[in-house]
Amino acid sequence: MKEVRSLTSLRWFAALFVFFFHVDMAHRTPLTWLPWRLQAIVQQGRLGVCVFFVLSGFVMVLAASRYLAQPADNFLSAHYIRDFYQRRFARIYPVYLTGLLLVAAISLRLSTLPSWPVILANLTLTTGYFTDTRLAWYAGGAHSLSTEFFFYLVTPLLLFWLSQRSRLALQGVAITAVAVGVGLGVINMLAPGRLSMDVPFAFPPFRLPEFVCGICTGLLVVRYNWKPAAWLAPVLLVMCAIYLSYAGPLVPAVTLLHNWIVVPTVAILLASLYHYESTPLYSWMQHRWLHSLGEISFCFYIAQLPLSQLLDALIAGKHVSQNNHWVTFVGLLLNIGVAMAMRKFIENPAYDWLMRKTKKPQRTQVAS
Hints:
The protein is an all-alpha fold and about 375 residues long. The chain has one domain (about 5-360). Helix content is about 65%, strand content about 0%. The chain contains 14 helices and no strands. It has helices at about 5-25, 35-40, 45-65, 80-110, 115-125, 140-160, 165-190, 200, 210-220, 230-245, 260-275, 290-295, 295-315, 325-360. Helix 1 packs antiparallel against helix 3, helix 2 (about 35-40) crosses helix 10 (about 230-245) and helix 13 crosses helix 14. One of its GO terms (biological process) is polysaccharide biosynthetic process. Keywords: Acyltransferase, Hydrolase, Membrane, Transferase, Transmembrane, Transmembrane helix. GO terms for molecular function: acyltransferase activity, transferring groups other than amino-acyl groups; hydrolase activity. InterPro entries: Acyl_transf_3_dom, Acyltransferase_3. It comes from Hymenobacter gelipurpurascens.
């Protein structure tokens, strides 16, 4: 698997986008000191999850690149499926469980533990499938991991099918995926009351188009050497920022309507980072500090959840003022510190231990 350091750095920016969104919520410490156009962009921070979903699909192709020259049936083999699921579980669940235990400890201290069905749904990463648990507890953040695990369940089947498609077919699937994803939001907007507003955002199958678009982009890049113009991604990013600064306040990100521009922009950015990361336009994304922050991005996201719950309790108890803008900077440093500790003492050791426990002799490994 080719390591693309700038893709790891991109994860940090997506996680940071989500962090500022969480801090800026009306019941917390709104970032009113920002220019209002910039704050309008921050308020669309849910789109950081969209970046993760598209990037996840792209990385799945990079991790499976050695299999692309082999028969597609290998993606459905017991060997590949077992190895893939073991690696994904070992990488994700220990950190997720740590965050859940921290949230449970805070909830216990505040006497706000939810019912056992909600706790069980969070433990089993099934919150996104049920109305009563979709955004319940765990600071409302478990839905993204519930969705990500759904993606993992269908990844072998998607790779099996999409790896056999032509370049033109992959382009068609990617365009269709964007249209379907946005269309679900449009239907929900035009027929209010049919579905709760959180369904397009947090119900795992509704987010599948973003992941599929990432896989298609990865296959176009790795197998067919698709190269967008180097200047295209920066131009689209500027256009996307301008669009969100004006349209963001009019349409909530939870509807996914902004994905018509966000998903293609992310896809083109991923392809550009893959091909052009050594050029002056993109080489700064390989900086070791950005890369290091990218490596802790998952822990950074998970750490946000108990810290957000703690901030809510401090504000409710009048221990922290909503007008205290130092909360953002102190919270950011604290979040980074906790994430670094989780990476060093939970994520890496747990991954190594679980992989040793499940590793079989003479086994060809799939890059994680």
